[in-house]
Amino acid sequence: MHLLASVLAPADLLPDASSMLHAFGPWVLAGVALLIFIESGVLFPFLPGDSLLVTAAILAGPLGIQPWQVILVGVPAAVLGDQVGYVLGKRYGRRLFRDDARVLRTSRLVETERFFERYGTLSLVLGRFVPIVRTYVPLVAGTARLPYRRFLPWNAIGAVAWVCGMTAIGLLLGGIPGIVDNIDLLMIAIIVVSVAPVAIGGVRGMIRARRQREDAALASDPDRAQTAADPDQAGVPSR
Questions:
Q1: Integer CA distances (angstroms), 96 to 70, 75, 178, 218, in order
Q2: Which of 122, 140, 160, 162 could tie 128 with a disulfide, CB 3.0–4.6 Å?
């Protein structure tokens, strides 16, 4: 599974959420909405969606905003972003991807397709909490021709769960003394926790791929297959 590498490799594309929020100035809510919209469905998955929402809730006071306002702009932005991904997937499908592309790489699409095949429409909710996957799930739903009447409600549920969940985490963490002074460490922790499911899936994928290669090698070599089945007979000449 290559999604782990996809998350970790383009570190230069992961901007600091706190700096971005302060840079928006009085337009911070518009900035939050724009970044969530882009990450959700405009095929640019390397924006700090999780950390952005958590940080916005933690720094709500200094930023001059309210947590409920983050939810108010975040949910529609996430829903609308997924609409774009769905439409792109339905219209262009796999033609958008190339094997050697840095962002729209075929391997990422394949892994997301497996995720979608495993969880079905529930992936529109679960995928929200997995970096990279949340950008590609609506695209895969469109490519798979998932009926829009099924896509929309699950998409909305996922958006509400994700935005409200991340904002709630920010509110809880914001009450911890000293958390604002150590927000950089907190963002690293959030990224690590977000990537953990991808890392686990990556390890499982590598183990599965190795077993498949070994099985294929045994199938193409009868003598090796016999030795693997009965090691005691290895090296014993036939009579």
A1: 32, 26, 45, 37
A2: 162
81-96 pLDDT tens trace? 999 999 998 888 778 7
Compute the C-alpha angle 112/134/76, nearest 5°: 145
- CA 159 to CA 82: how far, in whole Å? 9
The amino acid at residue 172 is: L
Spatial neighbors of 50 by CB under 8 A, at least 6 apart, are 129, 131, 166, 190, 191, 194
Query: Hunting for tokens 């958008």 — which residue is that?
Result: 96
* C-beta separation of 48 from 91 below 8 A: no
Task: Report the pLDDT value the prediction gives residue 213, as an integer from 0 to 100.
Answer: 75
